[in-house]
C-alpha cells in the first residue's frame, strides 16, 4: 500500500545498486544520459528539455532549473562553474545524504550535463565535512568516472571536458544559501551577499555559476533519458516530478520517502507514514524545516506542491517533515526552531542577528509564563519586519515557524499568556501536578519519591502537593499506580 | 552607456546602468537614510555590504524590501521609499540595533558625531520597543585605539578600510549569529596584531566602537603640575583642520589662533613640529644625497630608493609586511620624535632643567603617533622623548572644555627657538609634501644653485600613487609618492620586483597624507574636506618668506650651536633610529 504511493526518481538507484561500483551504475543505464547529451543534443536542447520538464530547485526555493541554466548559458565568462550544493542542514533531514551515499554517480553525471548545457568545464561539490561516507563515495566515484572516460578530458571521445572537485563546508547552515556558499568556497567568511547579480551572471570567482541542490541534480539523468514529457506528466500544474521527504517525529514509519508532487499530506502521513505513533491525536506537521510552517488537520487534504504549501504559509523547503501530536506545545516548537536559526544566523544583517535573538527571548518568556498580550503583538510585528528586511533566505524565512504557529494555534499562545497554562503540558513553568482526591488511596509512594519532599499526607489519606515547592519533575505522576496524579 | 529609467515616490529619472537605487534617489533629491553604507571613490573605499538594512525600500514586483544602497537599478523600476511598510521596517531595524547597543551616549567618545545617534533623532524614536540580552566583550585598548565592540553595529566599514584600502588585514568578522563581531585574528588585542595604528578605522566607524585612546586628561594633569615644564608641538596638518573641531567650516588655516589657544590652555612653551619638519629635511635630505652619491659611485652596500620614515603607521606597516626591505627607509626619525629628542636635550639644557622635569605634548592629526612615542627606542632611561600625544579631535575637545572661545582668539606666533619654520614644513601634512620639501633642499645642496621654482606640481595631486622624474644637476631622479597603505603596498611591490629604479619614495599611511589622518576631525566620508585642508597647507607654504628648510635660521643655529652638521655623530644619536622585523600575523 505504502509503496504504491511512492515514486522514486531522484532515489531511483539508492539501495538497488552498489554505490561504490561504476559498473553497478552503468548496469542501470548510468552515464547514458550524458552520452545522449554529448552526441545527440546541442546544449540549448538540453536546457530546453530541462525547462520543458518543469523541474524546479529541490533545495527549497523552487526556482525553475532550466531557466537558471539558461541564464548561465547566456552570460559570458572565462570559465563557468557547476556547483552542487550538498550542504544539507535542516535538523533531522537527510535527503541529499541518502542520494550521495546511495547513488553518487547520478549527481556527477548530472553536473557534467549541466556543464555541457551552460558551456562550463568546472564542477564543484560543496559538501559538509560531517558527511564522511558521502565524501568517500563521491571521491571514489570521481576517480572511477575519470578512469572510465565519463569525466575529465574529452568525455566519451568528444571535445567536451568536465572536471569535478570537492569543497568541504564546516557545517554552517547558512552556507546552504548560494551566495554564502560561494563566499565559503572562495575561502571567505560564510555569509551571504545581496543579489542581484545572481550567481548565474556572476558567482564563483565572479564567473557565471549554477548552484543546484543534490536532489535536483539526481533527477536530471532520468529526465534526459525518459524525456521532458514523461517528467512533466508527473505532479501538479506548477510542480512537476517528485519530492523526497524525510518524515520524522511522532509517526509510525519514520524515514525517507519519495512521492509525486500533488500527493496529499493525509496520504503521506496516514498511508506512507502509517499514522501518528502511539495512537495519539495528530496535531501538526512542519514542512520546510526551520524555514517552514506548521500545517494542521485542516490542511491534510492539501496537495503537496510549491504553491499550495506557500498558500498555507509553509513552504516546500528541502524536504524535512516533522509530525507532531497532541503532546507537542506549539510555542515550544516555534522556540525550538528559533533556537536553531538563531544559532545558525551568520550575524551579518541586523534583523537576523539581533531579531532572531529577540524573537527567541519573547518565545522563551512566553513559555516561562511571563508573556503578555503585548509580547504577542511584538512577536508578530517583529516577525513580519524581519521577514521583510533580512538579507538572505535564512533571515527572511526564520520567523515562519512563529507566524504560522501564531496563526494556527493562537489559542495555545493565549493560554500561555492569559491563563498561564500550557495545554500540551510541555512548558514546565506552567504546569501543576495535582492529586485527584477521589482516586488517591494514600499509599504514600508519591511522597516517598518526591525529591523535594513537597507531598504531604498521612497513610491511607488523600495527599496534597505543595505547589510553591514543587519542581514539576513528574516523578510522582510516573510513580502513582492509581492515576491519582494529573498534570494540568 | 545605457540608461535605466526609474521612478521613486512618483518622480522619474534616468541613471546609467550599474547605478544603485540610492544613487537614483540622490539624483532625485530624495533622502533615504543609510548607516552601514559608505563610499569614498578617491580612496577606493566602497562599503556596500547592505548589512544594516536601514535603507530598505519597496520595489514593485519584489516580495521583500530591498536595500537601496546595494540594489542595482533595472530599467522601468518603480520604487517607494516612504510607505508605512518601509517606515515600520526601518524603525524595527533601528530598534533592534539600539536593543543591542549601550545607551551610554552621555559619556561616549562619539557623542555628537555618532551616525546611529543621528538616525535615532531622524526617526524621532522616543522608546525602544524591543529589549533583551546585549552582547558584551572585553575592551581592547591599544596605545592609539580603543575598540569597544559592545558598541559595534557590524557595518563592516572598518573591515573594508583595514582590508581593502589599507590592506593590513587586521579586522574581520568573527563568530556568528548574535556573537558575530569584528575582531583581529584569534580575537587578539590590536596591540599584538599587525595593526599599524593608522586610525582610519576610527574615521569610518559610524558609532563609538572604534575611537582614539583619549589622553586629554593627562595633558590637563601635566599642565596643572607645578613641578613640570610643559612643551607643546603641533603637526602641520592640525592647523588645517582644527577649525572644524571648533565648529568652523573646513578650508581655513588657524595657525595663529591655534598657537594662542595652546598658550591659553597653559602650556609653558608653544612650539611647532614644523620646526622639526625642517630638521627632518636636513637629516633625511643629507642622508639621501649621501646614499645617492655612494650609489652612483658603485657602492653595492647602498640601496636606493630611500623611503621617507615620517609616518609611524607606515613604519609599522613595513616592519610587518616588508621585513626584507628594512634597509631602504631613511633612518631619520619622524618630526615628532626629532622634536622630542631636541626638546629634551638641546632645549632642556637651554632652560637648565633635567629632561625628567619636562613634559613634551604633541598635537597630531594621527593616532599612530600615540603608539610611536611609546616605542622603547624613543626613550632615555625610560623617560620618553614625547610624553603625551593628543589628536586634532582631542585638542578641539580640550579647547572647548577649557572655555576658550577659539573663534575670537587673536593670531599669535609660536615661541622660539623651536617654533620657527619655512614653507617646506607645513606641506609635510600633504601627500607629496615631504618629497617636495626634500627636493627643494637636496637640489640646492647637490647643485649649489638656487632653485627657481620651488613648487613640484607633479607630486601635488591627490592621487593615491604618484610618480614623476626630476632633473637634479646631471641626474634624473625617479620619484614615487603613495598615500594610503594599499597604495604603498602597490609601490613597494614595484620596488621589490626591481623593474623600475626609484630614487626617492614618500609614503604616508593615510589617504591624502596627514590632512586625512586618523586623528583629524571626522570627515564622515566627505573627501572634499580633505582637499580643502590640502589647499590650506599649500597656501601656508606660499605665504612664508622662507620656503626651503636649510634656510631656517633657527635650524642653522641648532646645527652651529649643538649638532654640528647633518649626519654628525650627535645628529645620529638624537635624530636617527632603526627598524625591527615584526610578525606577519
Structure overview:
The complex is a heterodimer of chains A (488) and B (585). Chain A is an alpha/beta fold and 488 residues long. Helices cover 42% and strands 13% of the residues of chain A. In chain A, the strands form 4 sheets. Chain A has a 5-stranded mixed β-sheet, sandwiched between helices. In chain A, strands 3-2-1-4 form a 4-stranded parallel β-sheet, sandwiched between helices. The longest helix of chain A is centred in the C-terminal third of the chain and has 18 residues, at 350-367. Chain A is elongated. The mean pLDDT of chain A is 94. Chain B is of the alpha/beta class and 585 residues long. Among the domains of chain B are: 3-123, Roll (Ubiquitin-like (UB roll)); 281-331 and 423-575, Fe-only Hydrogenase (Larger Subunit), Chain L, domain 3 (3-Layer(aba) Sandwich). Helices cover 35% and strands 15% of the residues of chain B. A 5-stranded mixed β-sheet of chain B has the order 2-1-7-5-6, sandwiched between helices. Chain B has a 4-stranded parallel β-sheet with strand order 14-13-16-19, sandwiched between helices. The two termini of chain B are 44 Å apart. The interface between A and B is large, with 36 and 38 residues.
Number of helices of chain A: 21
Count all strands of chain A and give the number: 13
Assigned CATH class of the largest domain in chain A: Alpha Beta
Roughly what percent helix of chain A? 40-55%
Termini separation of chain B: 44 Å
Describe, in short, the structure shown.
The complex is a heterodimer of chains A (488) and B (585). In chain A, 42% of the residues lie in helices and 13% in strands. Chain A is α/β, with parallel strands linked by helices and 488 residues long.
Give structural attributes.
heterodimer, A: 488 residues, alpha/beta, Rossmann fold, Ubiquitin-like (UB roll), de novo design (two linked rop proteins), five-stranded mixed sheet, four-stranded parallel sheet, 21 helices, 13% strand, elongated, B: 585 residues, Fe-only Hydrogenase (Larger Subunit), Chain L, domain 3, 22 strands
Amino acid at each position: 500500500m505504502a509503496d504504491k504511493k511512492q515514486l522514486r526518481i531522484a532515489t531511483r538507484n539508492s539501495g538497488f545498486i552498489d554505490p561504490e561500483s561504476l559498473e553497478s551504475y552503468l548496469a542501470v543505464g548510468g552515464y547514458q544520459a550524458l552520452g545522449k547529451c554529448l552526441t545527440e543534443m546541442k546544449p540549448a536542447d538540453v536546457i530546453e528539455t530541462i525547462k520543458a520538464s518543469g523541474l524546479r530547485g529541490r533545495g527549497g526555493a523552487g526556482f525553475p532549473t532550466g531557466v537558471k541554466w539558461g541564464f548561465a548559458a547566456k552570460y559570458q565568462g572565462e570559465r563557468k562553474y557547476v556547483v552542487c550544493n550538498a550542504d544539507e542542514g535542516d535538523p533531522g533531514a537527510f535527503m541529499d545524504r541518502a542520494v550521495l551515499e546511495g547513488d553518487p554517480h547520478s549527481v556527477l553525471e548530472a553536473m557534467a550535463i549541466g556543464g555541457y548545457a551552460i558551456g562550463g568545464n568546472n564542477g564543484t561539490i560543496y559538501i559538509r565535512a560531517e558527511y564522511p561516507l558521502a565524501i568517500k563515495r563521491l571521491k571514489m566515484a570521481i576517480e572511477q568516472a575519470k578512469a572510465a572516460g565519463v569525466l575529465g578530458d574529452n568525455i566519451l571521445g568528444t571535445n567536451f571536458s568536465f572536471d569535478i572537485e570537492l569543497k568541504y563546508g564546516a557545517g554552517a547552515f547558512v552556507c546552504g544559501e548560494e551566495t554564502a556558499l560561494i563566499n565559503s568556497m572562495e575561502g571567505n567568511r560564510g555569509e551571504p551577499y545581496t543579489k542581484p547579480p545572481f550567481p548565474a551572471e556572476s558567482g564563483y570567482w565572479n564567473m557565471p555559476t549554477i548552484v543546484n541542490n543534490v536532489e535536483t541534480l539526481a533527477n536530471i539523468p532520468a529526465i534526459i533519458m525518459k524525456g521532458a514529457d514523461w517528467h512533466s506528466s508527473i505532479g501538479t500544474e506548477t510542480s512537476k516530478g517528485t519530492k523526497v521527504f524525510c518524515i520524522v517525529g511522532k509517526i509510525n514509519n519514520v524515514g525517507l520517502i519519495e512521492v509525486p508532487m500533488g500527493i496529499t499530506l493525509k496520504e503521506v502521513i496516514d498511508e506512507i507514514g502509517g499514522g501518528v505513533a502511539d495512537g495519539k491525536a495528530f496535531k501538526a506537521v512542519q514542512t520546510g524545516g526551520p524555514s517552514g510552517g506548521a500545517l494542521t488537520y485542516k490542511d491534510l487534504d492539501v496537495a503537496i506542491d510549491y504553491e499550495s504549501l506557500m498558500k498555507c504559509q509553509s513552504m516546500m523547503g528541502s524536504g524535512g517533515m516533522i509530525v507532531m501530536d497532541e503532546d507537542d506545545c506549539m510555542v515550544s516548537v516555534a522556540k525550538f526552531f528559533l533556537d536553531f536559526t538563531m544559532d545558525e544566523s551568520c550575524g551579518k544583517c541586523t534583523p537576523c542577528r539581533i531579531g532572531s535573538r529577540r524573537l527567541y527571548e519573547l518565545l522563551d518568556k512566553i513559555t516561562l509564563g511571563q508573556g503578555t498580550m503585548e509580547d504577542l503583538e511584538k512577536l508578530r510585528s517583529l516577525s513580519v519586519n524581519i521577514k521583510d528586511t533580512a538579507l538572505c533566505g535564512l533571515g527572511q524565512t526564520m520567523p515562519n515557524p512563529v507566524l504560522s504557529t501564531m496563526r494556527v494555534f493562537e489559542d495555545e499562545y493565549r493560554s500561555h499568556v492569559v491563563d498561564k497554562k500550557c495545554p500540551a503540558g510541555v512548558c514546565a513553568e506552567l504546569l501543576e501536578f495535582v492529586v485527584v482526591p477521589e482516586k488517591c488511596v494514600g499509599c504514600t509512594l508519591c511522597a516517598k519519591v518526591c525529591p523535594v519532599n513537597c507531598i504531604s499526607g498521612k497513610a491511607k489519606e488523600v495527599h496534597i502537593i505543595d505547589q510553591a515547592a514543587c519542581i514539576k519533575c513528574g516523578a510522582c505522576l510516573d510513580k502513582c499506580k492509581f492515576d491519582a496524579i494529573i498534570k494540568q | 552607456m545605457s540608461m535605466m529609467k526609474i521612478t521613486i515616490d512618483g518622480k522619474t529619472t534616468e541613471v546609467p546602468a550599474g547605478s544603485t537605487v540610492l544613487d537614483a534617489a540622490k539624483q532625485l533629491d530624495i533622502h533615504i537614510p543609510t548607516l552601514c553604507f559608505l563610499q569614498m571613490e578617491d580612496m577606493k573605499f566602497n562599503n556596500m555590504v547592505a548589512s544594516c538594512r536601514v535603507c530598505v525600500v519597496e520595489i514593485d514586483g519584489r516580495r521583500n524590501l530591498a536595500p537601496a544602497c546595494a540594489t542595482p537599478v533595472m530599467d522601468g523600476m518603480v520604487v517607494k521609499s516612504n510607505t508605512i511598510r518601509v517606515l515600520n521596517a526601518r524603525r524595527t531595524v533601528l530598534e533592534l540595533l539600539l536593543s543591542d547597543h549601550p545607551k551610554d551616549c552621555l559619556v561616549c567618545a562619539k557623542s555628537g558625531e555618532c551616525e546611529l545617534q543621528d538616525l535615532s533623532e531622524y526617526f524621532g524614536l522616543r522608546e525602544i520597543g524591543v529589549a533583551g540580552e546585549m552582547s558584551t566583550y572585553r575592551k581592547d585598548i591599544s596605545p592609539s585605539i580603543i575598540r569597544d565592540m559592545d558598541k559595534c553595529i557590524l557595518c563592516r566599514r572598518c573591515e573594508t578600510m583595514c582590508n581593502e584600502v589599507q590592506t593590513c588585514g587586521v579586522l574581520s568578522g568573527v563568530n556568528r549569529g548574535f556573537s558575530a563581531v569584528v575582531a583581529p585574528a584569534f580575537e587578539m588585542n590590536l596591540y599584538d596584531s599587525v595593526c599599524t595604528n593608522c586610525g582610519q578605522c576610527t574615521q569610518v566607524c559610524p558609532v563609538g566602537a572604534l575611537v582614539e585612546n583619549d589622553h586629554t586628561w593627562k595633558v590637563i594633569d601635566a599642565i596643572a603640575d607645578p613641578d613640570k615644564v610643559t612643551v607643546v608641538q603641533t603637526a602641520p596638518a592640525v592647523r588645517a583642520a582644527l577649525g572644524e573641531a571648533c565648529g568652523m567650516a573646513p578650508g581655513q588655516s588657524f595657525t595663529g589662533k591655534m598657537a594662542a589657544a595652546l598658550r591659553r590652555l597653559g602650556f609653558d612653551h608653544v612650539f611647532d613640529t614644523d620646526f622639526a619638519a625642517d630638521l627632518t629635511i636636513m637629516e633625511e635630505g643629507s642622508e639621501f644625497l649621501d646614499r645617492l652619491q655612494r650609489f652612483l659611485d658603485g657602492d653595492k652596500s647602498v640601496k636606493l630608493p630611500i623611503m621617507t620614515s615620517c609616518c609611524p603607521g607606515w613604519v609599522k606597516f613595513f616592519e610587518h609586511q616588508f621585513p626584507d626591505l628594512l634597509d631602504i627607509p631613511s633612518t631619520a626619525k619622524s618630526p615628532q620624535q626629532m622634536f622630542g629628542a631636541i626638546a629634551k636635550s638641546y632645549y632642556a639644557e637651554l632652560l637648565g632643567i633635567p629632561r625628567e622635569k619636562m613634559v613634551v605634548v604633541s598635537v597630531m592629526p594621527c593616532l599612530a603617533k600615540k603608539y610611536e612615542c611609546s616605542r622603547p627606542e624613543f626613550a632615555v632611561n625610560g623617560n620618553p622623548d614625547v610624553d603625551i600625544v593628543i589628536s586634532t579631535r582631542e585638542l578641539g575637545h580640550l579647547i572647548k572644555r577649557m572655555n576658550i572661545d577659539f573663534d575670537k582668539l587673536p593670531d599669535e606666533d609660536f615661541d622660539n627657538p623651536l617654533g620657527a619654520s619655512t614653507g617646506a614644513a607645513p606641506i609635510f601634512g600633504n601627500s607629496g609634501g615631504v618629497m617636495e620639501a626634500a627636493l627643494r633642499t637636496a637640489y640646492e645642496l647637490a647643485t649649489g644653485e638656487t632653485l627657481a621654482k620651488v613648487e613640484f606640481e607633479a607630486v601635488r595631486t591627490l592621487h593615491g600613487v604618484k610618480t614623476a622624474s626630476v632633473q637634479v644637476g646631471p641626474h634624473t631622479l625617479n620619484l614615487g609618492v603613495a598615500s594610503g597603505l594599499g597604495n604603498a603596498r602597490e609601490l613597494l611591490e614595484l620596488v621589490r620586483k626591481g623593474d623600475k629604479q626609484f630614487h626617492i619614495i614618500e609614503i604616508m599611511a593615510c589617504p591624502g597624507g596627514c590632512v586625512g589622518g586618523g586623528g583629524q576631525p571626522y570627515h564622515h566620508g566627505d573627501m572634499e574636506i580633505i582637499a580643502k585642508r590640502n589647499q590650506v597647507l599649500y597656501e601656508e607654504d606660499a605665504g612664508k618668506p622662507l620656503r626651503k628648510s636649510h634656510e631656517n635660521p633657527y635650524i642653522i643655529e641648532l646645527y652651529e650651536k649643538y649638532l654640528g652638521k647633518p649626519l654628525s655623530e650627535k645628529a645620529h644619536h638624537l635624530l636617527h633610529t632603526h627598524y625591527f622585523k615584526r610578525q606577519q600575523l
